[in-house]
What does this fold into?
Amino acid sequence: MGFLTPVLLGGIALIALPIALHLVMRRQPQKLEFPALQFVRKRRAANRRRFNLRHLLLLALRCALIAGLAVALARPTIKGSGLRGKEGAPLAVALVIDNSVRMQYVFQNQTRQQKAKEMAQWLVDQLPEDAQVAVVDRSRAATGFVVDLGTAESRVRNLAVENNPRPLENAVHEAIRLVAEQEDHRQEVFLFSDLSVESLDEAALEAIQMAMAEAPDVRLYLVDVGVEEVSNRALQPLELSGSVLRPGQPLRVEVPAEITGLAEAPLVEIYLQGADGKPIKRGQQILEVSAEGSGRAVFELGDLPIGTHQGLVKFSATDALEADNARYFTVEVRPTAKVLLLGERKSDALFLREALSPSLIANRADVRFQCVTETVAKAASIDLEGYDAVCLLDPPPLSEGLWQSLTEYVEHGGGVGVFLGHRARLSNFNGEAAQRLLPGRLLRKSRHATYLRPQQLDHPVLTGLRNYAEQIPWQLYPVLQYWEFGDWTGDAYVVARFADNKAALIERPVGRGRVVTFATAVSDRLEIENREPWNLLPTGPEPWPFVALSNQLVGYLAQSESEPLDFYAGETVSLRLAPRHQISSFVLHQPNGESLRRSLPPGEDTIQISTTQQLGNYRVASGGESRLLDRGFSVNVSPAMSQLTRVAPEVLAEALQSEQVKLASSLDDVERYVDIGRTGQGLFSWAIMLVAIVWGAEHLLGNRFYREAS
Amino acid sequence: MTAVEQYLKPEIIRQIARLDLRAQFIVKGFLQGLHASPFHGFSVEFSEHRKYTAGDNPDDIDWLVYAKTDKYYVKKFEAETNLTGYLVMDLSASMGYSHKQELTKFEYSICLAAALCYLMIHQNDPVGLITFGEKIVDSLAPKSKRQQIGNILSMLAKLKPQSKTNIGQSLNQLAAMLKHSSLVMLFSDLLADPDEVIASLRRLRHGGHDVILFHVLDQAEVDFPFEGLVELHDPESNETLEVDADAYRSEYLEEIGKFRLRYERECRQIGIDYVPLDTSMQFDRALTEYLVNRRNWG
It folds into this structure.
């Protein structure tokens, strides 16, 4: 409680006046004849007491009237902020505006962000000239106090949508830290949020609460710009049959969707970019929506030629939140990889060839690998450059020339797989020529029966097994013999191990290519004369793990494994360059039509792109008309941005029960809090009303008391 | 209200100076308002026939005379019993009080007494007058002759409220004075110790007298219309009290209500007609009360 003009409180001394009058001047009663005095006399004592009481009451009312008037004129205010000892100090204000995509939700012809900006601008207008203002949003960039209010206002006005917002609590924390540094200022943080669960989950609330606890002088005003009853149609991330397809392989697009608060079944359309870059509608479906509000549409696109294809799936109708009405996708159709399978005999390649390119479907166009089987003896005459990968199946000692040509092949970007078996000889394989390719020196053949037991499935060779990791019965496919290695050469590392922890699968990058060595052979039949088979991986019961592993491994060697081409906004995109794509620069075509030219360091085999704020399809091209490089990727909004559920008020109240935090849902609330927080709430109107009531009571009582005899 | 009936209002009667005219006007006004004929007697002895007039009780029509003359005649009765009436006036100073009323309690009582005297003489009932203060001051022996009206009225006209009062003692004195059963019509404001008064009323009643107690109060004494701070002065005891009238009104009304209720209850118990009056009331109330009483007597 404080007073704007405390000197006027001196007027309270005037209450001496009615007291003096009361003591000195007593009004004479009206004199009347009245014979029936005996009835009056009976209750006179009680009446007299009441009479005196009323007299005193009247006196008290008059004193209260004068004192109340003095207090009212002194302009009392309530100081509600509790900003200790900082009344009159300049302000340090941070405006935290949630500018995530979700704030684009339109309600009453206004996005939530527009409403937040409008309120924030109003707030800036209210601030005194000497206030320090910071505008913090959910973009990654750190901010500080702006120069003046005009800059603050223009920053609020120009706030852009953030497709990849950082956690809201980080922004709030930054704002709190920023204002808390201004120790001699009054410290206020205004958070404009739609109070969605995504932005203010339990962890976020806890983090905010902790940040507030660290800065006890900071006041946080939580301004609710959200909508209670929401309606939205949201497309969830698309499920594609693969990001890399073979020629002739159809693209299957599954479109999950979540519908909230809208009854009608929406129409979903799929578009594919044509050669001229314009989208062509390739299909549409009415989405069947379940009672829970979820639905799924499935499209199948065939006849995709070799190359990069981009498109989008979207709702034909619009809704309040536009950002999640469309999802973009990119797929690449790559030519079939040519794989050379070399063994001492052609039959050595049987298992691997069947695993890679089953003879039943070998003639189909959409087969992934095109396998060519040759004997090692003829290998020297083969031009390896025509193949994407070469597999040596239980190779016998090779000529130095063949080792040399294999090494050159790998250095130029080829992939070589070595499946060591009983034909390997230490003298040849530990020779200088072989060691330029192999991961290390061979030590001995181990006859210790074991089985393959890959632990970490994050290597590209193993990622395809990840979904079935628990179900693969590796024990059913025992490995009876394998090669043990000595120290690893160069960059070689173990990709997978046997159950006895010996290396099973070793990769060694050489030049721009890769060499993967498997410590046991995959060419042994179940029954062989004179010796035991090295393992039962291809010959065990239903050897599907072998098929899967072979496909992954050879795909990796041929560098034709699929890679993700669908990203969320803000993620760093990395695109592997095929060995033949030796480029020094590329052009990034962004969804908004702008193009960026980027250079690439020599020898770099991956393009890293971090400017992925915009939603849509990106294109990476190089080589001009020749289209040496023509790749693409899609950037979509995170599904979390479609979560419009709001934090329950009781959760919010419980989490932020500190005196430091106030919740406001309208400008009026903000105004009230700001007024109370800064200069206190003016009580003049209340005080003067009280005075009027006292005056009325005094008048009434006085009139009754001193009524003139008429 | 007809022209005559308005004479029942105290404010009209006040404009008439002569008491005999006042009495006549009141009685005329009163009779006009009655539906039953006032000339119907209360005695049982047949005296003569007279022509039936509207308002007469049809029961009294003599059908034998009708059979003979084909005209309606009613039987007239001669008073056989002598109902001796005493008008007893309280002369206390408090009776002279009036707060904004046309008539003081005393004047009101006198008008009423005169009217009653007039009525009684017309009934051939003997009427006397007794006045008292602290004791009986003056008395006029009851007579039924016409001159008695003049005597009583002239005496009433001369009366002035003057002294202190002792109702109880005066009534005791009266009870001792009256030899025969009489109708005592007492006009007083009863502003004295009620125990004493009631005791003497009992005694009076015990002596075989019928009593009509006209309790005359000023309207101000009934309503306590004062406002604000007032200093009240009792003319009789010269006592003064300062009270806040607004706050006190409800308590006063309660007290005066209790006072009147007590008299009403006690009077009913001992067979006295208690007529609470105030000076703003019309006279017919009091006169009706007399007539009812008189009929019962008859």
Observations:
- The interface with chain B takes residues 27, 29-44, 46-48, 50-51, 54, 704-709 of chain A (CB under 8 Å).
- Residues 91-229+651-679 of chain A form a domain with the Rossmann fold fold (CATH 3.40.50.410).
- Residues 44-73 of chain A form the longest helix (30 residues).
